[in-house]
């Protein structure tokens, strides 16, 4: 049987291709992205990570394999701490922001999977790993790094440690899928696609400096 992760990535390939065309990412790669847009993005990403880390810890509490439990607790602790430390270098003078519609939509969808099978909840968090890993590689391959104000950010998501974490997350999702029903496997793919779309929306929202209209 084809690995679930292979099927899920293929099903969302067109979304990933659209992500690579986003002005936020192309301008980050060449160093021309405005600081205002970047700060808008990481203020929202900080709010996202607060909820994301809780979802990771909740998944850990539901897993039965102790090794997988430890892996997800590591994601929720050390992994998220690394990203938040990177944020701190840019956001130390920013006030706490309100979640934008895109951020609220994404975090709400993640938290809503608490009543689903744990395999579905795990599949929901995977695009945040996998798409960032692939985008990081892509940007690093095309970026103008000399005097690029976002060089540190780009290197973080193209780092071998992040690559390793992504592969672990994929492997756990594949194991959960292999031990699930076909209905759960289909639901895993559905939520993976939905969250991939929200990755697109998150970057697009930041570029547009989106806020609540009323």
Strand-helix topology:
Blueprint (H helix, E strand, L loop, with lengths): L3 H8 L1 H8 L2 H8 L4 H28 L3 H26 L9 H12 L5 H25 L8 H7 L2 H19 L3 H26 L7
Helix pairs in contact: 1-10, 2-10, 3-7, 4-5, 4-6, 4-7, 4-10, 5-9, 6-10, 7-8, 7-9, 7-10
Write structural notes for this entry.
By secondary structure, the chain is mostly helical. The chain has 10 helices and no strands. The protein is globular, with a radius of gyration of 17 Å. The chain starts with a helix and ends in a 7-residue tail after the last helix.
Taking pLDDT < 50 over at least 5 consecutive residues as the criterion, the unreliable ranges are: none
Radius of gyration, in angstroms, nearest whole number: 17 Å
Number of helices: 10
Structural class: mainly alpha
Order of helices and strands: HHHHHHHHHH
Feature tags:
214 residues, mainly alpha, 10 helices, 78% helix, globular
Quick take:
By secondary structure, the chain is mostly helical. It contains 10 helices and no strands. The model has no long low-confidence stretch (mean pLDDT 92).
